[in-house]
């Protein structure tokens, strides 16, 4: 897998949130033209993108903010049992520290931080645009 793509209405907020989570901005680009339209299937599209990567350079998330055509609501606040891509999961070294770092960027705990046996602590949080993130801290 190369990357996962997400469309947002506030690119700067998404970048800031995922930087606070520990990802790194790999680059930004302005996207428009015949090539892009041919790939994504939207004529006359204009967007800004940001590619974020994990510190180990293994995984990426591409965020797109469209100027044209305007983005449509894709049920970004749907519950976990809704069909489609629902969440992205990250392992973290310190769950409490991670939650503290992302809270100023709009992170909202979905319900609780739970402990599974003596193996891990985990929770779901909603980030910008309702993006659902699972955070896991392995205890062993």
Automatic annotation (TrEMBL):
Span of domain VOC: 1-138
Keywords: Metal-binding
Pfam families linked: Glyoxalase
Domain of life: Bacteria
Protein name: Glyoxalase
Species of the source: Lentzea pudingi
Taxon lineage: Bacteria, Bacillati, Actinomycetota, Actinomycetes, Pseudonocardiales
């Amino acid at each position: 897998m190369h990357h996962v793509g997400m469309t947002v209405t506030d690119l700067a907020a998404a970048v800031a949130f995922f930087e606070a989570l520990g990802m790194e901005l790999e680059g930004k680009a302005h996207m428009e033209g015949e090539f892009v339209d041919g790939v994504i299937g939207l004529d006359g599209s204009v967007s800004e993108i940001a590619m974020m990567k994990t510190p180990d350079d293994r995984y990426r998330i591409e965020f797109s903010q469209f100027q044209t055509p305007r983005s449509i609501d894709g049920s970004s606040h749907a519950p976990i049992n809704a069909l489609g891509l629902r969440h992205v999961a990250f392992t973290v070294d310190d769950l409490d520290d991670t939650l503290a770092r992302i809270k100023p960027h709009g992170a909202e705990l979905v319900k609780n931080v739970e402990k599974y046996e003596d193996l891990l602590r985990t929770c779901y949080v909603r980030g910008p645009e309702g993006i659902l993130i699972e955070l896991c801290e392995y205890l062993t």
